[in-house]
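hi! just following up on the protien thing from before. the input was this:
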Amino acid sequence: MVIALPAHIPSPSINSFNIGPLVIHFYALAYLVGIAAAIIITRRRWKAVGGDPDIVGDIALWSVPAGIIGGRIYFDITTPMDIPHVWYGVFAVWDGGLGIWGGIALATVVGLWRLRRHGVNTAQFMDAVAPALLVAQGIGRIGNYFNKELFGRPTSLPWGLEIPFQYRVAGGIPTKYLNAATFQPTFLYELIFDFAWAAVLVWLGHHRRIKPPGLFALYVFGYSAYRIFEESLRIDSSVYFLGLRLNTYIASALALIGLFWFWRSQRRPAPVESTDPDPAAAAADPAANAAAADPASGAADADADAEHADPAKSPNPANHTSSGSRTSSGSHSDHPDPENSGSELSNSENSESEKSGSEQPASSSQAASES
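and the predicted 3d structure came back as:
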């Protein structure tokens, strides 16, 4: 039995389902699955570089709501004509969606704040989370498929996406394209790119010496560069400036910023390992700390220790004289010779000098001060 393949990608017939009174939108479900996948991937990558994986949960608890708020704010500012005409329209993330630029920007700011509160190396964490963000974005694009949005210009390619007429009108596409049947599935292109670029970043992290936050900079560059291509295909509602979609300018600027950021981060010298002593060892040896703080005092202490250990090497002339006297007297009793006679003469001279010194204390003090 031969099964004929469809000549195009069909659109799903539903975009939500009910659990009792609760309505579950596939768009929201796709984002939740993407966020969960990003947390799991980041935990593993952060643990692999020696980080505490439990911190990832705290960062996500703050960054995810910030990303949703930032994404919706960006959408409302850049496409005000697409805000639903109800009182809660500006908050209806399931109708119109989120702007990725605003979501990443606000989530990054809040995430960096939390990382610094934890005392974590922000650059290393950014590299750990970069591939995970791409995976989350790719999974989130599945929600665009169920919403029948983010499609490109008409195409006759076999993978062209069928868009029902009412969604073509709701998408705000130009009138000349309303009668087309199939369109470029730009959401699918982005899903494939996100997964592929995430794999490239993981490979680079394992096989090349990329200084942090180089991988995050490449994430910004790569995704933004891809969006320039995607924006050239999309025909849905957008603000135009000088004939180009607003997101084209933003993607171009961010691609240049990401490329420059990567170049700058890799030119920065590698961090030098600290040569400071172990604080515990330093506290346990206060004498070593004192010697390090006062080199002159340390040298004097070393000389004093040497004197006690070997009096013969003492620089004090009195020690040499006294030692010499004892040696000479002992030698005189056993071996009388001219050298011992010289020692006795030296001893008598030293005795006379000591008597003279005791009789003239003022002169000795004056001589000591002059020396």
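The longest strand covers residues 16-19.
The radius of gyration is 41 Å.
cheers
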